[in-house]
Amino acid sequence: MASKEDLVFGEIAVKSHFVTQEQLNECLEKQRNNTKWNSLGAILVEKNYLTPHQLQFILNIQKRNWELKAHQSRKVKQDNLFGRLVIRLGFATDRQVEESLGMQLIVNDGQPLRLGEIMVKKGFITEEQLNKVLKFQSLRQAICPGCGRKYNLVLFNDGATIPCYICDNKITAKPLQNFIHSTTPAEAGQV
User: Which of 55, 70, 97, 139 is 20 to 30 A from 17 in CA distance terms?
Assistant: First the structure.
């Protein structure tokens, strides 16, 4: 059975008019029946259905699509984290965060709105609260001493230790008591 990557590769090849659907199906069948694994692109080039230049063109499109999906995924994770933090700091309610997350389907000039922008526009939080949450998030980032990977430790308690997913070094959440005390729900005007 063809991998998801090969299916996407084939779809791009057909949409780019580099190969026909019949040629693609033939190569997918050859790949399926082959005892040693060959990528779909290699088979298409071997059959002279694709040039090496066309192969590289498709691989570049795939890479760009993966990077875009990874970027969108990171944005969604950041927005979910932002929502949890807004609730934890007492700036908004669960219902307000859920409503704002639902509004992210609305697109602004081809880009989805960020959760913080929506919450300010709806009046659920103030610009000052938005800036405090963003500052708090940036202060709670830690860099693994072993491999340099960045981690957001916003939801970890002070002093919590987590293993790096890459190199297994220990990363510790540093205390931010002064920041938290200056951002109490009462001071922030909890809604």
Answer: 70
Question: What value does the mean pLDDT of the chain take?
Answer: 81
Q: Which amino acid is at 148?
A: G
> Beta strands of the chain (E only): which ranges?
107-108, 111-112, 141-143, 150-152, 161-163, 170-172
Q: Residue 21: CB partners within 8 Å, gap ≥ 6?
A: 14
107-108 and 150-152 as β-strands: parallel, antiparallel, unpaired?
unpaired
- Tell me the domain boundaries of the chain: 4-50, 73-139, 140-185
C-alpha to C-alpha distance for 3 and 136, rounded to whole angstroms: 41
Q: What's residue 180's pLDDT? A: 45
Average pLDDT over residues 95-120: 78
